[in-house]
Amino acid sequence: MVNWVAFYLLITYANMPYIPAAILAFILSCYVNFLLCRKVFAPSERKKTTEFLLIIAASTFAAGIDIAAMTFFIEVLKLDVMLSKIFGTGVAFIFNYSARQFYIYKEK
After folding, report:
1. pLDDT per position as a tens digit, 32-53
2. Within 10 Å of residue 55's Cβ, how many Cβ atoms?
3. Which terminal residue of the chain has fewer beta carbons within 10 Å of its beta carbon, N or C?
4. Dihedral sign, CA of 70, 19, 21, 99?
5. Closest CA relative to residue 21, chosen from 30, 32, 10
6. How many whole angstroms from its chain centre is CA 39?
7. What's the CA gap between 1 and 7, in Å, rounded?
């Protein structure tokens, strides 16, 4: 949600081109995601910098999954664009949550 809202605000009210707006929204959402994960999951025993970089890596990979899944749903299955985005986000969410649960914040 942070990504979508930040993107919308940047392109609508700051009149920012969509590519820089998407990058800034992604960075902001990754940071918020990092902060929320530290509340939801027990903080890992890694250094905060390492933990943050792992969150960025997982989020970036999840963004790729989202786009690939969305493209598959649109191009191959011929689904509606918004429905495809919802499904793509769902697939990416599963990966993102699993990466945090089983790797980044895994208990020893």
Report:
1. 877 887 777 666 566 778 877 8
2. 22
3. C
4. positive
5. 10
6. 17
7. 10
